[in-house]
Amino acid sequence: MRMWVLGSGSRGNAVLFEAEGSRVLVDAGFAVRDLEARLGAVGVPGESIEDLVVTHEHTDHVRGACAAARRWGWTVHASAGTLTACPELVAAGAIAIPPDGVLVLDTICLDAVPVPHDAVEPIAIVATARGSGVRAAVVYDLGHVGEALRRTLADLDLLVLEANHDDGMLRAGPYPPSVVHRIGGRLGHLSNRAAAGLARGCAHRALSHIVLAHLSDRCNQPGLAAAAVGAALAITPFRGGLHASAQEIPIGPFRALALRETRAAQLSLGL
Q1: Most-buried pick from 10, 104, 159, 241 (CB within 10 A)?
Q2: Which of these, 42, 240, 55, 41, lies nearest to 162 by C-alpha position?
Q3: How far is the C-alpha of 188 from the C-alpha of 106, rounded, in Å?
């Protein structure tokens, strides 16, 4: 499996997965022309993508979804709650993700995991390559982390993780108290501190890459986010790459560094 973060932040989000020739996009939060340019920058034609999964109805995740689906023939999937909140997706032929939260595509299996955010039935996504077993997750737009989510994120190869704000910068920033409370609340966004805690809990020797996402332009800096998460990872077995995504440019591709068979042998030996 290969993964690209085409851009992430309050002005748009999109993450691309590729496994055995099939491609799936998670979120299309950019206008179609912008999305086409970002895909072109990583050498991917829009028509080569087969499916789009929308995590929730906020504009920075759904802006280009309908137009892109019509232009390139994508099949769109979202939770039933997201479809209720965004009837435009229904008009574009979007399909509700099954009640068990598992979407089985040609080469990728997608698990939809409920997350706490101020949207209607938002989800995180865990993608598993059906051939290799490589597991990757997209976890952003959530206010806190529950134990069920922590368990779901065990034994990942690739992780896109929200590190939205620095607590001090949020308090001293330009937003009114109501917005500060929303961002920092239990239905808002993960801080660098909270991202560090989740990363520490997910860390293991074979986790290949962590990509920090949805960084605030006004209340965070890539260096602050990376320092906070990196400090938490330093006391774990994690030896992979730690990266900060950008709003304006794609980054990737990211690949699993260890084969599943090798990892199973390591685990059996207690390494």
Answers
A1: 159
A2: 55
A3: 34
pTM of the model: 0.95
Pairing of strands 14-19, 2-7: antiparallel
Three-state secondary structure readout of 196-242: HHHHHHHCCCCCCEEEEECCCCCCCCHHHHHHHHHHHHCCCCCCCEE
Residues 56-72: tens digit of each pLDDT: 999 999 999 999 999 99
- Looking at residue 86, its amino acid is C
Q: Which residues in the chain show pLDDT less than 70?
A: 259-271
Structure tokens at 144: 């806190």
Q: What angle do CA 271, 193, 195 make, to 5 degrees?
A: 55
Paired strand residues for 14: 7
Which amino acid is residue 268, in one-letter code?
S
Give the residue from 193, 179, 190, 40 showing the smallest Cα distance to 16.
40
CB 119 within 8 A of CB 57: yes
Distance CA 27, CA 16 (A): 9
Tokens standing for residue 121: 């039935």
CA-closest candidate to residue 207, choices 249, 243, 164, 163: 243
